[in-house]
Request: fold
Amino acid sequence: MQGAIEKRGSIGVIWIDNPPVNAISFAVRIGLINAIQSASLDDSIDALVLACRGRTFMAGADISEFASGVKPPHLGDVVDKLAASPKIVVAALFGTTFGGGLEVALGCNYRIALASGKVGLPEVKLGIIPGAQGTQRLPRLTGAEFALKLITSGNPVSTAEALAAGAIDRVAEENIVEAAVEFAEELVLRKAPLRKSHELVIDSSKFDEVYFNTFRNSIARRTRGMDAPECCIQAVKAAVELPFLDGVNRERELSRSCIQNPQSKALQHVFFAERAATKVPLLKKDAELSPINRVGIIGAGTMGGGIAMNFANVGLPVTILELEQGALDKGLGVIRKNYEASAHKGRMSFEMVEQCMSLIGGTTNYGDLTESDLVIEAVFENLSVKQKVFSKLNSIVSNDAILATNTSYLDINEIASVVTNPGRVLGMHFFSPANVMRLLEIVRAEKTTPKVLATVLKLAKMIKKAGVVAGVCYGFIGNRMLSGYGREAHKLVLEGAKMEQVDRVLFNFGMPMGVIAMADMAGIDIGYRLREQMDESTYDIPSTYVADRLVEMGRCGQKSGGGFYDYSPGNRTPIPSAVSEKLVSEAAEKFGIQQREIYDDEIVERCFYSMCNIGFELLDEGMAFRSGDIDTVYINGYGFPAWRGGPMHWAENNVGLDRMLDSIRNFADKYGERWWKPSPLLERLVAEKASLRDIQNKLQP
Ligand code: NAI
Reply:
């Protein structure tokens, strides 16, 4: 029973036991209210401890209740009841006291926490605000500064930080419940007051309009486009300026507006999509896994080094192989520099830098890879170079070691064909910088075995990546969609849009930067070299004309001081370039393209509808299992704004599938079917008035 009371002397311990994370379900809420009620009538109880069984204190609301609507009593009612208890209540925190769990604790009179625990209010990440008085009680305990940081970031803090801020009162190194009982006994003994967080007064003189504006500006870049962080600020401001009950009403209004805002639906979709992406229809839940104790990496370039860091960070030894000692030393030097930069920023200790570096070895000799359980190849993007590497690996490593390629575009089935046991080959497509970007596209080739796929999915989780399974096709999920997005951006430029206009519109949509500036950052020579290996009939020649001429002039992007844009030395801000503009005019004339005024709306529609149309193709072909997988790819690999839910969620919920199809058909009429043929899946969905969710199961092979 939730809320069972165990007596320990004169202290009543209220137990919650709702595995796995003690989510605050209907039964938990009822149990808590009843327990407080009966304890207040029990004369043998002097004070109470609120405790949880299992691995954590209450870690938040029960998300399974979201869909059907939460039944009363609400969490706020529970907090009210705790706050009105005539006997002292001590919350015994451990594990992850998040969201509603922390709000419950804030309603108690005192809080003791296990040193290893964390507390946080992650609601903002789901587009909402803490709605059970958390925004009103926390600032009263800690002041506005800590509360603003915790609530607007959604990131948890350690017990030590929470203690320093005043969010908790005491720390226990172990045996949290015993420590909480002792704390309660001590409070009773010294006749401590029933300290109620709602009665505390905030020194509002420090937190005036200027203070809030300064804070608002400090998070503006990180929260661009999102509505919930501003609501968090408003709620904390209400805590500073209003009496408690008025503040609670204000919190309720703000909470309601967030719940009704499409951004919260989008962010919740993102949360569930990322979890769903790890469940692959082809795999059994208890699929057999291979042990991975040692990782080999071929190539110590941009990607190889970053990939190595992921494994060293979680304690797995890595050996990187390069062709020559010089390249190896350079690659290892870059890794060290990256770690040291993190240490200088306070993200890790210098001791940890040495620890990680000691796990990364270098070699120029394939013989040093014989012990590897997984080898990831990250050499030049060239099929025959990669095939040679795989043949070599085939003769070196054990027959069941997993062989992965980091290729961006190449046919992994062809790479696998040179290996005697191709079932162990797959793609592990990391994104640059590989030690930072969360996405890992896991590309299953024709013969990849379920065991290999399951092992790499598990490994992705271990190295803290968002793993998404894709099938083998040109560019897999992310880069195949990028091809449409980038092509339309460049076509729009040839038709009369300025590069900076296109990039501004894409940035304002919520992308981290425009696609043209992004190409300059990544290096436009990458695409050039790729096209050299491609049949001209497979890509749009006019839209690549400017890029190709720029590369031939030595303008490869930021790294060469100029590309589509000019750059001042040491500065990454793009400056419109007369060289590019001249090439654009030249291309427009060469290909007979009439220049005209281009409106911002057309830029959004052509760039993103083209991206989404390819997304529907990927689903139709079974290259992506679910639309949510595509959204996970775009948010974690390309910076698509999470508050729009990813491109497919946006297509369905913001644009509307019928409207998108109409526009795509219009573009097909105007610009031809070659790049604008509507995806058959999109046509079917619209014809059948179906949603992406309706057809989900049918999409799974
Ligand atoms: P890079 O040119 O920075 O590094 C490649 C490294 O491989 C060089 O250090 C080179 O010396 C080494 N190498 C070449 N042939 C070798 C061989 N036979 N044996 C051992 N080492 C060899 O290239 P980058 O950017 O790291 O790309 C590597 C792979 O990752 C490519 O397939 C690329 O498509 C893919 N990729 C690149 C991304 C990026 O943003 N740079 C993003 C995702 C994937």
About this structure: Residues 4-260 form a domain with the 2-enoyl-CoA Hydratase; Chain A, domain 1 fold (CATH 3.90.226.10). The pocket of NAI is lined by residues 298-304, 321-323, 327, 378-381, 385, 389, 406-408, 430-432, 522 (CB under 6 Å).
